[in-house]
Q: What sequence folds into this?
């Protein structure tokens, strides 16, 4: 019989690792304890929304937990989680984009997206830059985060984003250009 | 370090880090989907249902249909005030004075990072030759001489290493011959291992190669322009600068940002032309936020003794941003006669009256150095899309000696789709030509004509 690979079993319950892999929860929780803050930071930069960032990270670690028995290279679990976080941010941004027409989104300021507490702690110039980053298309924003925040190489960024190295280059350079223009034109 | 911090990218990284530091703790891990996650669709037994392949074939077919529809929805039409006829049927025969052949790095596969070198026919798209990369390398850049038969290509190590060992190759093509293209290793010595090559330019005669690179370790930010003999590999001349207020490239130094139009030979190979950008009105702290940017086209006499790249070169044209008519993210290019600067116009868009389409007027401009403020429109048309989140990017890929004929590229992205086009602009008309395989999204000029 053909089967579908989903997260839910026939009784409607979410599937986790088989009982035989009781270490999964412990291992993933340990990874979470060690790296959740770093992952939430990445997602916060991408999304500008702390609650959404935490959700994305929770989902990424939950995904790791579910796939733990099948994970061939557990040493690369963090790489997997980071990619999942970036994917989750991408999906969240797409959902946001669908909700907000671009014009309206462009008119929104960084302060409108629920990070007022965080913004109170950083400087005016940095706020303006982050507001400009927030207005970049998702792929460009992701490339900037990978290249300049995470210090990833073009090759690593390409792997993390699932795109070619050439596209990383063009996305990055266009992001930098757009950022400069937005800032200089006083739109942020 | 201070120099690095004055760059926009450094400021962006700093802003990101500051925001990141506001996160100091995480909520407990819940080993269940978050409240924001989409609920997965329950699996249902399908004893009599379609076979497994049809389950994914249905969404795949739908996706193909959506893509086809989206492509169909991208239309090209006249701008009422435009000078140029709408794009016509693709050119399939050579146009006078336009290179008939190109060379470009092409990804070995869609998800591969490595590239091979391909040679193709500009007007038919037919591939003449393809060279796999030497073991452990990938083709990174290529530049053409004026004869349409001679190219120089460059490889870097692949997978990418922290040091960039570079090799150079001469590519000669002989259309119609039993071996239409040959690749020969050149004796040019490698650039320093901690340098990023930004752009290369082969002289019109094919005898000299100009290479611009920037150190990324020590000393950081030092830009070097060198000229090598193609035949002997001998270093003929060298200039450098650490001036961060006139950095090579329209948006600062970026590796391979504009491989083939950032640096060009002019005046029969007696001078090099390049684009620099700089900022004025910096705040005391060195912040570039709110500063005015100048993009300048400079010329450098290659017969003069090497020295300081900025002091020894002269500004022949400049534009200020915000306000400049050229797209400041792409290098404005001085044509080979040294008289005209060509550039794509800055892209804008508007929504049509129905509110359903986003319309992008695309244009390419020329400035005579004798009248540096007067822009002449070489080509102009509009493209539109029903997609949201659309964006248009334009570039000049090649210009003839006087700037009257251009090979241009334009990219339209919307939603998750994109369409990349290449065409000729000549005598006020735009004619599509096949899109070379190596051309990258975003208008970077990795294709050499």
A:
């Amino acid at each position: 019989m053909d089967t579908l690979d989903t997260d839910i079993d026939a009784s409607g319950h979410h599937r986790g690792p088989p009982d035989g892999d009781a270490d999964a929860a412990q291992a993933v929780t340990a990874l979470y304890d060690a790296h959740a803050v770093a992952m939430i930071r990445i997602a916060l930069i991408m999304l500008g929304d702390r609650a959404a960032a935490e959700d994305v990270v929770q989902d990424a670690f939950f995904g790791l937990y579910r796939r733990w028995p099948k994970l061939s290279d557990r040493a690369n679990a963090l790489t997997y989680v980071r990619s999942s976080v970036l994917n989750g941010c991408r999906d969240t941004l797409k959902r946001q984009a669908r909700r907000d027409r671009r014009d309206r989104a462009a008119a929104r300021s960084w302060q409108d997206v629920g990070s007022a507490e965080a913004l109170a702690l950083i400087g005016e110039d940095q706020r303006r830059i982050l507001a400009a980053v927030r207005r970049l298309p998702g792929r460009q924003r992701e490339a900037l985060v990978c290249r300049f925040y995470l210090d990833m190489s073009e090759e690593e960024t390409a792997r993390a984003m699932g795109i070619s190295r050439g596209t990383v280059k063009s996305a990055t350079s266009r992001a930098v250009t757009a950022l400069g223009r937005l800032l200089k034109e006083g739109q942020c | 370090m201070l120099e690095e911090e004055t760059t926009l990218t450094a400021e962006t990284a700093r802003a990101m880090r500051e925001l990141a530091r506001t996160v100091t703790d995480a909520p407990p891990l819940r080993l269940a989907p978050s409240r924001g996650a989409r609920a997965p669709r329950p699996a249902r037994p399908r004893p009599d249902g379609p076979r497994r392949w049809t389950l994914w074939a249905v969404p795949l077919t739908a996706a193909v249909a959506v893509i086809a529809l989206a492509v169909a929805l991208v239309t090209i039409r006249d701008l009422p005030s435009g000078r140029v006829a709408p794009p016509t049927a693709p050119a399939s025969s050579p146009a006078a004075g336009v290179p008939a052949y190109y060379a470009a790095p092409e990804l070995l596969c869609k998800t591969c990072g490595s590239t091979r070198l391909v040679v193709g026919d500009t007007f038919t798209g037919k591939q003449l030759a393809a060279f796999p990369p030497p073991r452990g390398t990938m083709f990174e850049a290529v530049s053409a001489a004026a004869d349409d038969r001679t190219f120089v290509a460059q490889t870097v190590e692949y997978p990418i290493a922290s040091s960039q060992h570079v090799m150079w190759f001469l590519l000669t093509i002989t259309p119609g011959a039993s071996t239409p293209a040959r690749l020969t290793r050149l004796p040019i010595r490698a650039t320093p291992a901690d340098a990023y090559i930004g752009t290369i330019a082969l002289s019109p005669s094919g005898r000299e190669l100009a290479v611009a690179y920037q150190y990324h370790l020590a000393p950081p930010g030092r830009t070097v322009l060198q000229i090598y003999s193609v035949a002997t590999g001998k270093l003929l001349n060298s200039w450098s600068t650490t001036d961060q207020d006139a950095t090579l490239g329209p948006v600062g130094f970026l590796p391979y940002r504009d491989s083939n139009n950032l640096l060009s030979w002019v005046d029969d190979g007696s001078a090099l032309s390049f684009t620099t950008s700089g900022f004025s009105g910096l705040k005391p702290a060195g912040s570039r936020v709110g500063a005015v940017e100048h993009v300048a086209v400079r010329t450098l006499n290659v017969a003069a003794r090497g020295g300081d790249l900025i002091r020894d070169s002269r500004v022949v044209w400049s534009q200020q941003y915000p306000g400049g008519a050229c797209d400041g993210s792409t290098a404005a290019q001085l044509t080979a006669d040294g008289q005209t600067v060509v550039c794509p116009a800055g892209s804008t868009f508007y929504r049509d009256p129905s509110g359903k389409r986003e319309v992008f007027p695309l244009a390419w401009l020329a400035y005579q150095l004798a009248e540096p403020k007067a822009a002449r429109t070489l080509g102009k048309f509009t493209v539109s899309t029903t997609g949201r989140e659309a964006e248009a990017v334009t570039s000049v890929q090649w210009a003839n000696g006087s700037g009257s004929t251009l090979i241009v590229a334009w990219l339209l992205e919307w939603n998750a789709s994109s369409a990349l086009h290449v065409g000729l602009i000549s005598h006020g008309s735009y004619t599509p030509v096949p899109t070379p395989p190596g051309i990258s999204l975003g208008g970077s000029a990795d294709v050499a004509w």
User: Anything to note?
Assistant: Confidence is low (pLDDT under 50) at residues 1-16, 98-114 of chain A.
